[in-house]
Amino acid sequence: MFVVSSEDMKQIDKRAIEKYKIPGIILMENAAFAVLEEIEKLKPRNVTIVCGIGNNGGDGFALARLLLNKNYEVDVFCFPDKTKVKGDAKVNLDILINMGLEIKSDLEKLREKVKSSDLVVDAVLGTGISGEVRDDIKKVIDVINDANKILSVDIPSGISSDDGKCLGKCVFADITVTFECLKFGHILGEGREASGKVLVKKIGIPKECIKEQNIKTLTNDDGYPMYLIKRRRIDTNKGNYGKVFIIGGNYKMSGAVILALKSALRSGAGLVYGVFPRSIMDRVGALVPEAVYIPCDEKNGYIFIDEANLNIILDKADAIAFGVGLGNYDELFVTLKEILKRYDKNLVIDADGINILSKDVSILKNSKANVLLTPHPAEMARLTGLCVEFINKNRVEVAKKFAKEYRCIVLLKGASTVVTDGENVYINTTGNPGMATAGSGDVLTGLIVSLLGQGYNLFDSAVLGAYIHGLAGDKAYETYGYGLVAHDILNNFGFFIR
Ligand SMILES: NC(=O)C1=CN([C@@H]2O[C@H](COP(=O)(O)OP(=O)(O)OC[C@H]3O[C@@H](n4cnc5c(N)ncnc54)[C@H](O)[C@@H]3O)[C@@H](O)[C@H]2O)[C@@H](O)CC1
Ligand SMILES: Nc1ncnc2c1ncn2[C@@H]1O[C@H](COP(=O)(O)OP(=O)(O)O)[C@@H](O)[C@H]1O
Ligand SMILES: [K+]
């Protein structure tokens, strides 16, 4: 599903009205019907609709008429003042006035009504918000937030459609009904939580209008990205599903590489090779008997990959993951540099691999390998020198800029994981805070390298990885709640891929 900014949506609406000659008021009517459809499912006895003075308010006025015609008990408020309403919104306001409805602008009356209403509809501010919410409207939002149930029209008032930031104050909706495309604000930042359950409804905009906008950002929906998964031919064998190499582990930390190996196996890789320091061989061997092992020499407990082993890896591997539990040991920078210089297939750099890379990110620029980096925000901070808070507030832009500059693919982890090659963007909405547990990143790495081995390209592997990892985490959450651990996630991979 496409994800658009407020400017994209403005252009799409404009194209529909000016080029394709659909009157704006018809779109507004269809928007109102789309909201009505959801309200009827909720079966409220009485509805309070709070409108602003722009077209978001216009949707609210049109909705009020549709509800009144169906004999619902409806109260309509307009803030700051109904005399300021113009255009299509005014047409719908005037119809209500002609029907004899009183349109109120009294905050105290709203406070009373909100308490006794089964449902409050928030049609105060939509995609047309600019700058911080004005103080008078902040008070209206506070009152709306006291409601039993809130449905926001298009986007919760106070949320920026472009990045999900709360502009000083915002409505926290139970349901948001939006039109034609998701907005960034529904799935990023505070907007993700504030939007509640989001429903995207068609309002009659010709699909050409959206196509002509050339949208480059997608999120998951009922089809994407899972329709990328290929069915296996019956007459295939392990040789068809990749030799994937996972380089990781140090004398103090064997768990990460074990989890990544298991994860690669549980998501269908044909042959999974573990490359780790010799001192953890017994543990890895006992816990992952299905893997092939390349135990390596050690320096100070950290892995040392000699030329003979490096040649085996570079020669055999269909895909490599570098970094899980490796430790941030200076000499490993040289190893990473060699791999980047000599390997010409897909390379995932994660965890300590990213910390090692942070010593000099510019080595990416001459890389022969196609690189995917999978940083969490703190690792992204090490890569870029930016602070974590800034990164989290500007996830898409930060990831895009880095990917473009260093010619790689970035998967920036966290709620609303972002995958980008610098131009195309995927924002993932599966997953939950139960996944904020040690090792859950390691199993993502194992999953992605496994998908690479099975022949998916680097971008698709990252997208599928983020999506399936989140789904598997959501399933694990059903059973274990916040007590879920990384093993619970990886054990669900095969189910969702099937
Ligand atoms: N043809 C179209 O453009 C369609 C638009 N639709 C609706 O129209 C909305 C967009 O309408 P508009 O562009 O008129 O904008 P909005 O109605 O979202 O908001 C603009 C109004 O909000 C006020 N405002 C802006 N920033 C503010 C702030 N920081 N604090 C307080 N008040 C502020 C302004 O006074 C302005 O009148 C969409 O979200 C959607 O609900 C739908 O009717 C479908 C068709
Ligand atoms: N609140 C959340 N919502 C969705 N996914 C989350 C959330 N918290 C963590 N995750 C996911 O869990 C994984 C954690 O990875 P990471 O921080 O690298 O863990 P570790 O290094 O311990 O393995 C990432 O894929 C991240 O996107
Ligand atoms: K709204």
From TrEMBL:
<feature type="binding site">
    <location>
        <position position="157"/>
    </location>
    <ligand>
        <name>K(+)</name>
    </ligand>
</feature>
<feature type="binding site">
    <location>
        <begin position="55"/>
        <end position="59"/>
    </location>
    <ligand>
        <name>(6S)-NADPHX</name>
    </ligand>
</feature>
<feature type="binding site">
    <location>
        <position position="122"/>
    </location>
    <ligand>
        <name>K(+)</name>
    </ligand>
</feature>
<keyword id="KW-0479">Metal-binding</keyword>
<feature type="binding site">
    <location>
        <position position="256"/>
    </location>
    <ligand>
        <name>(6S)-NADPHX</name>
    </ligand>
</feature>
<dbReference type="GO" id="GO:0005524">
    <property type="term" value="F:ATP binding"/>
</dbReference>
<keyword id="KW-0413">Isomerase</keyword>
<dbReference type="InterPro" id="IPR017953">
    <property type="entry name" value="Carbohydrate_kinase_pred_CS"/>
</dbReference>
<feature type="binding site">
    <location>
        <position position="376"/>
    </location>
    <ligand>
        <name>(6S)-NADPHX</name>
    </ligand>
</feature>
<dbReference type="GO" id="GO:0110051">
    <property type="term" value="P:metabolite repair"/>
</dbReference>
<dbReference type="InterPro" id="IPR030677">
    <property type="entry name" value="Nnr"/>
</dbReference>
<dbReference type="Pfam" id="PF01256">
    <property type="entry name" value="Carb_kinase"/>
</dbReference>
<keyword id="KW-0511">Multifunctional enzyme</keyword>
<feature type="domain" description="YjeF C-terminal">
    <location>
        <begin position="219"/>
        <end position="498"/>
    </location>
</feature>
<comment type="subunit">
    <text>Homotetramer.</text>
</comment>
<feature type="binding site">
    <location>
        <begin position="413"/>
        <end position="417"/>
    </location>
    <ligand>
        <name>AMP</name>
    </ligand>
</feature>
<feature type="binding site">
    <location>
        <position position="325"/>
    </location>
    <ligand>
        <name>(6S)-NADPHX</name>
    </ligand>
</feature>
<feature type="binding site">
    <location>
        <position position="56"/>
    </location>
    <ligand>
        <name>K(+)</name>
    </ligand>
</feature>
<feature type="binding site">
    <location>
        <begin position="126"/>
        <end position="132"/>
    </location>
    <ligand>
        <name>(6S)-NADPHX</name>
    </ligand>
</feature>
<keyword id="KW-0456">Lyase</keyword>
<dbReference type="Pfam" id="PF03853">
    <property type="entry name" value="YjeF_N"/>
</dbReference>
<feature type="binding site">
    <location>
        <position position="441"/>
    </location>
    <ligand>
        <name>AMP</name>
    </ligand>
</feature>
<protein>
    <recommendedName>
        <fullName>Bifunctional NAD(P)H-hydrate repair enzyme</fullName>
        <ecNumber>4.2.1.136</ecNumber>
        <ecNumber>5.1.99.6</ecNumber>
    </recommendedName>
</protein>
<keyword id="KW-0520">NAD</keyword>
<feature type="domain" description="YjeF N-terminal">
    <location>
        <begin position="9"/>
        <end position="211"/>
    </location>
</feature>
<comment type="similarity">
    <text>Belongs to the NnrE/AIBP family.</text>
</comment>
<comment type="function">
    <text>Catalyzes the epimerization of the S- and R-forms of NAD(P)HX, a damaged form of NAD(P)H that is a result of enzymatic or heat-dependent hydration. This is a prerequisite for the S-specific NAD(P)H-hydrate dehydratase to allow the repair of both epimers of NAD(P)HX.</text>
</comment>
<keyword id="KW-0630">Potassium</keyword>
<dbReference type="InterPro" id="IPR029056">
    <property type="entry name" value="Ribokinase-like"/>
</dbReference>
<keyword id="KW-0067">ATP-binding</keyword>
<dbReference type="GO" id="GO:0052855">
    <property type="term" value="F:ADP-dependent NAD(P)H-hydrate dehydratase activity"/>
</dbReference>
<dbReference type="GO" id="GO:0052856">
    <property type="term" value="F:NAD(P)HX epimerase activity"/>
</dbReference>
<comment type="similarity">
    <text>In the N-terminal section; belongs to the NnrE/AIBP family.</text>
</comment>
<feature type="binding site">
    <location>
        <position position="442"/>
    </location>
    <ligand>
        <name>(6S)-NADPHX</name>
    </ligand>
</feature>
<dbReference type="InterPro" id="IPR000631">
    <property type="entry name" value="CARKD"/>
</dbReference>
<keyword id="KW-0547">Nucleotide-binding</keyword>
<feature type="binding site">
    <location>
        <position position="154"/>
    </location>
    <ligand>
        <name>(6S)-NADPHX</name>
    </ligand>
</feature>
<dbReference type="GO" id="GO:0046872">
    <property type="term" value="F:metal ion binding"/>
</dbReference>
<comment type="function">
    <text>Catalyzes the dehydration of the S-form of NAD(P)HX at the expense of ADP, which is converted to AMP. Together with NAD(P)HX epimerase, which catalyzes the epimerization of the S- and R-forms, the enzyme allows the repair of both epimers of NAD(P)HX, a damaged form of NAD(P)H that is a result of enzymatic or heat-dependent hydration.</text>
</comment>
<dbReference type="InterPro" id="IPR004443">
    <property type="entry name" value="YjeF_N_dom"/>
</dbReference>
<dbReference type="InterPro" id="IPR036652">
    <property type="entry name" value="YjeF_N_dom_sf"/>
</dbReference>
<keyword id="KW-0521">NADP</keyword>
